[in-house]
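>> Question from a student workshop board

For tomorrow's exercise we were told to take the sequence and the ligand below, predict the bound structure, and bring the output to class. My setup keeps failing. Could a helper post the expected result so I can at least see what it should look like? The ligand is adenosine-5'-triphosphate.
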Amino acid sequence: MAEKVAGRVERRNAGDNTSAATSEAFERSVIGSGIAVREIVKSYGAFRAADQVSLEIEPGEFITLLGPSGSGKTTLLNLIAGFQKPDDGEILVDGKAIQDVPTHKRGFGMVFQSYALFPNMTVTQNVAFPLRMAGVDRATAERRVAETLDMMRLSEHAAKSPSQMSGGQQQRVAIARAIVLRPKVVLMDEPLSALDRRLRESIQIEIRQLHRTLGSTILFVTHDQGEALTMSDRIAVMDAGKIVQVGTPTEIYRHPKDRFVASFVGESNLIEAEVVQKRGTTMTLKNRAGYVFSAESRDAIDVGRASVLVRPERIAISDVPTANSIPAVVTSALFLGEILRVEVRMEGGETLLIRCTDRTGRPLPSVGDLLHVSWGAEDCWVLS
Ligand code: ATP
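>> Workshop helper replied:
Here is what the output should look like for this input. Compare the format with yours to find the bug.
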């Protein structure tokens, strides 16, 4: 990602092409803005919805705020959008403080869960609206609308009214309207949560492609961890008004900072164990029943006891003991097509969830079967 960001910075130095509604402003791609959120506080009465939040968003980055309901995602997005004012802290866009800049002068594109299209206007008129407001000349506006409808695969619906379109199509119109001015920043608050799963997945891919084509910085809010993992360059995980971890999808999934992130992002097995040896970031641990295994950690954590994460798909099962395997009894086994979902109780009492691929010729495990479970040190992560 460093390379990508460096590339963007280089392009930015070559010239700002989005500041005015001129024909050059309508180049197909823009250079996204960098956003710095510094120690932002926002309270509602005694309740802190944003509690000293800091976040650096790189120019052109696709960053997602992910967290449970009430964790402060929309509050942070609204503060960046200018719908709300922070009680403390500052927000910088390309190095300039924007707290006192009204929303409409920030020049951000915005997409919300509700499509908020003008019902009495056609698709073309909806998408052309921001261009009209910006005083863009007619010929340029027509070209830009056609280009944007094409980008969002909406050209054939240009003359329809919103009521003649499906939810997914309406949301694509809302996205088209948000990007028609080629904003340097696009804010999206749960834009797909009203759509069914298949549609969500196809629009997720479209938004990703759009981001690549457009080059804008995108700040995306979701409570859906799968959506965040699929779409983002980086994810900022929020809990109780704070950002608890920022990282790439693989960092967040493989190396979560704590139990909250481990449990919120993906399915997780948390095993209680005692650290018996540390060598750099590799640890040797002993579980409750005295079985010894190795795990990785960010730093050599100085604790006697630790919670250790093993993802369900990283656990191997065998009918016979293998190196460092732990005996376990099957408590449930489900055939889900390409994978098996198996729950086992390890010696010592802890339950593990396992997801493994179905293998032709291997009988399905049955409740009560004795298996032997194991995992590699690199698939086992000590939580701080
Ligand atoms: P969701 O996924 O449910 O939208 P969220 O993570 O976006 O949740 P926010 O909408 O930012 O969460 O809300 C954070 C907290 O602040 C919540 O507890 C909410 O009840 C509270 N809150 C938000 N807006 C207000 C308001 N205007 N007045 C009082 N409390 C508010």
